[in-house]
Amino acid sequence: MKGKFFIPFAAAFLILTPLFSFIEYNYSSLRGSIIENSPVVSSDETVVKTENKIDTAEHTILITGDSMADGIKMFLTNYCKYNGHKLVGNGLISSTTGVWSQKKKLKSFIEKYKPTYIIIALGSNELFSRDLEKREQYVKDIMEQTEGIKYIWIGPPNWKEDRGFNDMLKKVLGEKKFFASKEIFLKDPLLNKRSSDKRHPNMEGYRIWMDNIAEWVMKKSDYPIKLNKPVQ
Known about the structure:
The chain is α/β, with parallel strands linked by helices. It folds into two domains: 2-38; 54-219, SGNH hydrolase (Rossmann fold), CATH 3.40.50.1110. It is 52% helix and 9% strand. The protein contains nine helices and five strands, in the order ααβαβααβαβαβαα. The protein has helices at residues 2-37, 43-50, 67-83, 97-102, 105-113, 132-145, 165-173, 182-185, 203-219; strands at residues 60-65, 86-88, 117-121, 150-154, 178-179. The chain has a five-stranded parallel beta sheet with strand order 2-1-3-4-5, with helices on both faces. α3 (67-83) links the parallel β1 and β2 (86-88). α3 packs across α9 (203-219) and α6 (132-145) runs parallel beside α7 (165-173). Mean pLDDT is 84; it is low at 1-51.
């Protein structure tokens, strides 16, 4: 009786053993294929992912450009104090890229202040220029004046659409060195944050602008430095 009871189990074992072997073999082959063809992060890719870590060093930051630079400076001062940076420089009222290029203004500021990081806010006085090829050469010359010092360029706070000036800046400077202020000023919350001349931001506008610049510097720029928002 015991033998008859055992026979079905023995038969099942003989039938299923080859099947289990077949499944195990194909699973191993498939697993090996998946591993072999899976994308591997190379050491180069690892560098790309880690090279934009925030620089926590204390910098001497030069802020300069046109009158917009002075407005930004009011709130950048608090950021620098809070994050341990030294802030130097100022804007030149009504200045243009042509003035900064031809008179080598940035070069003279660098020689005077010895910055380790540069913030340029320039372009508001030429938003509607048509000679963009000439302006492009001015911008390239200003870039050369940085002499390898890390820098970012803050685009003008458009009060209406320009004639391609911002697109030119973005093309020449690249997205990670150029903060496109236009994108936040032609819509809320900054659309109506203007002073009486309807061009310069009001105090609230400058504050929100600086908050957006700081966040972009740390998260999206080529040269992220420590610009945590000051605790009130």
